[in-house]
Amino acid sequence: MPGFLIRRLDQLRKRPLFWGIWVACLIGITIFLTLVGMPIPYALVIFALAIVSILFSRAKYLPILIIILLAIMPWTSQDQYWLRVLITVGIYIMLALGLNVIIGFTGMLDLGYIAFFGIGAYTTALLTTHFHLSWWLCLLASIVVAAIFGVLRGLPTLRLSGDYLAIVTLGFGEIARMTFANWVGLTGGPMGIRDITPPSVFGFSFGFSAQWGYRLYYYLILVLLGLTVLTITNLRNSRLGRAWVAIREDETAAQTMGVNLSWNKTLAYAVGAAYGGAAGAFFASFNMFVSPNSFTFFESAIVLCMVVIGGIGSIPGVIIGASILAAFPEVLRFMSEYRYLIFGLIMVIMVIFKPRGILPER
Questions:
Q1: Residue 358 covered by a domain
Q2: First-last CA distance in the chain
Q3: Is 39 part of any domain?
């Protein structure tokens, strides 16, 4: 047996729980692929390639394998329902990554993050239906408007922490939802806004069609996710990201070393809110309808659970956590009466046995 393979197996033996979680995730992905219509031999080949990449190359080729898998997945089945599920998973990943900037990088609790998601969605809905602007301009507007509200929400909370910060952020989320529900002249109230224009490029619409189904939306959310991961990774490794982590670890020590607490906290709120606004812009065009029922506290709690279960501060962990928690209810739809009970039990078990998350920050 080659020496490098012996060393690799020895590493697996020393960290059985870590690699066990990796293999469990790969098994889950394989099962999911068969559920969405991929032929079983193809799914098994992908699973085998993933295992080989872990054994022989320290998983450095695993991201490339995942990208190829994501690119071909829409063409493995004609079932548009599961494609909608995958797109919804992508939206939740964007939300979880944005919340991770606030909670994971800076250490500030946020129980009303879904408000920025709603602000981005309503901004796009209003601009496309009333002013007939291009969706791409609406995307930029949603990012800017959500970031502005992030600053406005962040400024009064700079000196708060713990329970007080949680109450204020929760209140902001409820204020936003009540505004969406009661400002009938602007938001349509409980009836919401419908007939939102889908994105288009040179007159070619991304909307649902008999030929493409939801595939164009699928690739659009992949592009947005790629940009989100790239920019957040660069932010995390930048001077600003290191300042956020310093604030998370010890505010007093960070301030002593010259970190401007107010400025950096406000930037964290603005950046995190901007990603929520971008996800909201996509959500509005994808569903072609928005209403206050989509932006409740329950959604904020689910996104927070995605960050905690995946691993606070860990970008790969948050992606895994969001993918699992977003897809889990749909995978268990055949057990509709018990799926949220199972969902809750799994979260309790994770918190007990993996309190730092599936893939914690190193």
A1: no
A2: 32
A3: yes
